[in-house]
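Entry 14. Structure prediction run on the chain below.
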Amino acid sequence: MVGLVVAASTITGVFVKLPAGVWSDLIGRTPLLLTAAMIFSVMPFTYLLVGSLVTLIALRFVHGSATAIMGPVMSATISDLAPSNRRATWLSLYSTIQGAGQAVGPVLAGILIARGRFDLAFGFAGLMAIAAPVLIALSPLSPSSAMPAAPVSDNHFTRGIAEVIAERRILIASIAHASFFVINGTLNAFLPLFAMDRIGLDAVQIGWLFGLQTVTTLTIRPMIGILSDRLGRRGAIASGLVGCGLSVFTISLSMSQVGLSAAVLIYATSVAVTTAATSAYITDVAPKARFGAAHGVFGTIYDIGDAGGPLVGGLLVQQWGYVPTFQLMAAMACISAAAFAAMSRR
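Output returned:
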């Protein structure tokens, strides 16, 4: 049930990201960004009223809609604003700042919850989130954020989806990124148990291990974005996936804390390489008028992988154990890299 509560917001993204991205192409980015920001600023306070598990899960679904809207629409907004030769730099910088917030959030919440007051954590989160709609309302956005003069019909909506899905490279890149998220979800769920059961690490050591992974990815990602702007996206995406595969295979063979830490560092670097280039690649191959739809399709597909990773990984670990599961995930990463490199050629 805890897993369902946590996954509820991701599941929402599977259904909301695509229409959110398409509608941002049709009616402009600002209305959708403001909607997401308002949900972000209201939802933390609603948790203070929760009295049952059903209510909590329902609120998580609603809360997830904010992330589902904000993700593709903000990526499309940055793609509108960024020069074409600096898209990966801008998008990876945005991802780094976002990731820093995701890393700091649990620390602040932990400090507040340590006082035995969950309500303080939710209230503080809500107060911080109030800044989001204010910042978006005051921020200068790209020309595509303006409201269109012509009325919008269902035909415009379906045509936007059809044009994006017809671009094979968007689908290939999205599926490759989804395979990465299956691997990442499996590691997030079962690497702590593997480290505890096989190597004997305690909770503090495992916490430092994940902290090292997060800091490495956040530090390296902007530099990889700059390099991919200069050297190209396809090579970065494919090599990052291969690096993920090799590092996960190394993790499966690790027998000491030093060996596991080194493998996790390689994995964190590989994550930075592939994720820094993929969003910019989606923008590169999408029609300019369909940036929102393209990132909506992209987000929907990789959310399926993100939600399915812990579930698939759990079934495999239960059936085979940690080592074969990690090695299978490593093989999948390398196969995805080869498939992407071959099928994305034009």
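The mean pLDDT is 85.
Filed with the rest of this week's runs.
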